[in-house]
Amino acid sequence: MTIEKSQILNWLNSCADIFAKERDYLTQLDADIGDADHGINMNRGFERVKDKITTIEDQDIGTIFKTTGMTLLSSVGGASGPLYGTFFIRAAAAGNGKQSIDLNDLCQIFSDGVDGVVARGKAQPGDKTMCDVWWTVVEALEKSKDEGQDLQQALVAMGEASEKGAAATIEMQAKKGRASYLGERSIGHQDPGATSSMMMVKALRDVVVGQA
Amino acid sequence: MVGIVAVSHSATLAKGLAELVNQMTQGKCSLAVAGGVDDPQNPIGTDAIAVMDAITEVHDESGVLVLMDLGSALLSAEMALELLPEDISASVQLCSAPFVEGVMAAAVAAAAGLPIATVKSEAYGGLQGKQSHLQDCEPATVVDSETKASDEPFLSFDWTVENPHGLHARPAASIVTALASFKATLELAKGERRVSALSLNSIATLGVVKGDEITFIASGEQAQQAIDAFSSLANQHFGEAQLVANPSAQLDAIDNKVEEAIDMHEIAGALRGLAVSDGIAKGPAVFFSVSMPEVPKREFTDAKTEIQRFHTALNSSVDALQQQASASAVDPEHAQIFNAQALMLSDPELVVNVEKGIRSQLIAEQAWLDAGSQLADSYQRAESEYLRERESDVWDITRRVMNQLCGVEKASLELKQPSILLAKDLSPSDTMGLDPEMVIAICLSEGGKTSHSAILAKAMGIPAIVQANDCMNRVKAGQQVIVDGFKGLLWLEPSVSTENELTLARQQWLEKRELELSSALQTATTLDGRAFEVQANIGGLSDVSLALKNGADGVGLLRTEFLFQACSELPSQQYQYEVYRDIAKALEGRSLTIRSLDVGGDKPLASYPMASEENPFLGHRGIRMCLADPELFKTQLRAVLRACAEYSNIQLMIPMIAQVSELLAVKQLIAECRLELKLNEQQAPLKLGIMIEVPAAVLNADELAEHADFFSIGTNDLTQYVMAADRGNPSVSQLVDYQQPAVLKAIELTCKAANQAGIPVSMCGEMAGDSEMVERLLAMGLDKFSASAALIPAVKAKIRTQNLVSVN
């Protein structure tokens, strides 16, 4: 089983729909501990992505990711712009020339992307950032691969891992970004960036295996 | 030169910082900013692509220093570095210095030609001057700049600073630049304090002012050479020899605000005034004096006759002003000047005063002159400078009516050769009447910076200075003089070297202007190759040549009101046809968009009395009035159709459309006119478009687009209607801003509807001439721009820097 290019496109479109729907929720999360723009930013970024990918539907997955990354870079506005932008631009390498991807490819794509995000944001585990989701997601994927699970099982496990990763940020104290100004007061809130990452990860699962 | 890039979440902050830098470095710094994101509703944010573009813009082999405000600005800047090709990114450095102080310090160092390492360390030290002044934190950060005396043998040089502003940024930069290359330890001392002479920030912390004694200390291999270099620089007053010799000659930008406080003493060979319009010109002086007609010696008739006599003169003066307003050759904004004067004349209190005078047995002329003088006097005593400067407007209207009362023809100036005009003051109407080919500069002994004449001179591109005291007495008619509109100087006897400098500066100015104008004639094509038309808004045939000279790709708005306002009777079909035809012909094939009559209660017509309305802007105006009087409207439609049969570059545009039925009614009338004239669509292929200025039209844009051949967005009215705020009411004026998100949204909806329907969408309001808005408008999908002639070159230049792939 593989993930087809059409599913990748559906995934990105579905992210756009989710961020439009969850815009106010994400912004509210951000209002609690940040600068109240995360939902607005993600919504704007993926709206542009949605427009943009209609023009490159016939390209390979690598190009689609690269375009997505470049579009997010210049349209998101907040820190998540360079972060998600880097994610997709780095992820593009493993998708180059491909019309479909298997579990190995997916592991490579996500781990390259996450390496890029970590290098850009310089986050440590437990800093209450989107990386806390991405690390658990990549870990889950690697585990599924090593255990010889199929793609469907891997995606389901990945989705669960993302939920755990996001929930774990609630108890963390922020060390990065605007939320770090709050110190201990940041504890008790789920990190907005971690939440949007979780939404993206779950969206991929839902597009490929259907609603869990 | 090291380039500086400033990255901010806020476009406003970035722009403001650039403004400060340009003022500080006199535009010599190679600075680019990347601020905000392209989302009118949530404009705060950073954009890595914009940072990348900014770096590319200022990059050369000296490298680029990037400073950022905070948060995502850092990530976006790092991301930009990663995206740039290696050969560029290798010479780019990111710098954690404080944003505003750091950029300022870096910009001054970069403008002085210092290498990137020095520029960067200057940026880091950007807070030193402030900390040393406020003394609010541990001196540790400041001490770094102070050097400790060592035992090494040294040479020293003492100097008393004569620079009027002390060792401020520019002289300090000249010291650092001159000394940077010596192998030596170089320090500057004032009193007990001793700092590195190679750091601008450190020099700033010394706070050297005029009259201070400083010591330059050098030790090391090239100490002697450094001392020699410093002493020679000191003798040239660190690059400000001219300023030291003539402290008042150079009002630099930093001092502009305090210029009135600085004593205005004289410069050898020149008279000093205030610069109001850039440029330099040399020529023979001519005097222009307009005098008030004398009150005739005649017997008082009777109150009724005198009052009537006064009203006749008053009315024809008001008419003349309104006519001048609508036919204003320079810019519709300037039409407001004449409208304002017309309002002043219609002031009921003024009229009451005159009538009172007449009832006390004064003849009309005397009563009017008394009332006018009294009003001028009250303006002269006003507290605000702005109001005081309106005094000349009062004298101007007083003279207009006096001319009418006494039967004096309007004074006009016939020049036989290009000359420099000297006058006590010029009224707006006098200024408008000047021929820029013959009047090559203006020098006034009075007048103010914000006076209407100054604004008009600027718009007409004539170099001008005002408040050149005594210029009327010190200059003889025919004497060769030079006006320097940059510095506000009238040169009577310049030294040979000054004259050479001025000649050179004039040539540079002319070349720059020539370049701007010649590039204006080129098509405005974006970087990715799409050409956009930038057209002119005009009020009549006389505006066409200026528009074409400024590179107009046709006329996007011909106001037809002037045809109706200029006559006491309604213009005939034949007359209108001839005017439209002549303008279309003069455009040599470029398109001409004629707007049908747009008047209402706010712009009354002498030839067409209209009921006064409580709320004219929401009343019977534009197409509403035209549809109510089909005969009036059809006369215009027939004239346009006839002209179109000869010149197919004509199209028609209907103002104030709010609903589809109005457009259909216009179509019906045009169809009737076609039948009457026997002109079918092939013979007169008149395209029919509408102005989008009523919010209802925005909301109906999809349906309107099905019936219209094009849209043209009138941002002035659209803004005031969307925001429900009167342009003329100062207490709500902040709402009247086309950058309001709601207005931008309305424009976006309009563009979208037009794009979807496949019809062109143009813009003919003030916003179209704002080059700062070009990027945003292109992103929204605007197809054409139409602006005042003077603004066209800048709009075209801006379009040429755009890349649609990136704005979309």
Summarize this entry quickly:
The complex is a heterodimer of chains A (212) and B (808). Chain A is mainly α.
Q: Which two chains form the greatest contact, residue counts included?
A: A-B, 22 and 19 residues
Stretches with pLDDT under 50, minimum 5 residues of chain B: 139-146, 249-266
Overall pLDDT level of chain B: 85
Q: Separation of termini of chain B?
A: 33 Å
Strand percentage of chain B lies at: 5-15%
Question: Would you write up a description of this structure?
Answer:
Chain A: Pfam families: Dak2 (PF02734). Chain A: InterPro entries: DhaK_L_YcgS (IPR012737), DhaL_dom (IPR004007), DhaL_dom_sf (IPR036117), Dihydroxyacetone_Kinase (IPR050861). Chain A: This is Dihydroxyacetone kinase subunit L. The complex is a heterodimer of chains A (212) and B (808). Chain A has 212 residues and is mainly α. In chain A, helix 1 packs across helix 2 (23-33) and helix 1 packs antiparallel against helix 3 (38-53). In chain A, 69% of the residues lie in helices and 2% in strands. The radius of gyration of chain A is 16 Å and the shape is globular. Chain A has a two-stranded antiparallel ribbon with strand order 1-2. Chain A has a single domain (3-209), classed as Serine Threonine Protein Phosphatase 5, Tetratricopeptide repeat (Alpha Horseshoe). Chain B is of the alpha/beta class and 808 residues long. Chain B folds into 5 domains: 3-134, Phosphotransferase system, mannose-type IIA component (Rossmann fold); 147-253, HPr-like (Histidine-containing Protein, Chain: A, 2-Layer Sandwich), CATH 3.30.1340.10; 271-289 and 412-495, Glucose Oxidase, domain 1 (3-Layer(bba) Sandwich); 303-406, PtsI, HPr-binding domain (Enzyme I, Chain A, domain 2, Orthogonal Bundle); 523-807, Alpha-Beta Barrel (TIM Barrel). Chain B has an 8-stranded mixed beta sheet. An 8-stranded parallel beta barrel of chain B has the order 18-19-20-21-22-23-24-25, surrounded by 4 helices. A 4-stranded parallel beta sheet of chain B has the order 2-1-3-4, sandwiched between helices. In chain B, a hairpin with a 5-residue loop joins strand 17 (524-525) and strand 18. The two termini of chain B are 33 Å apart. The interface between A and B is medium-sized, with 22 and 19 residues.
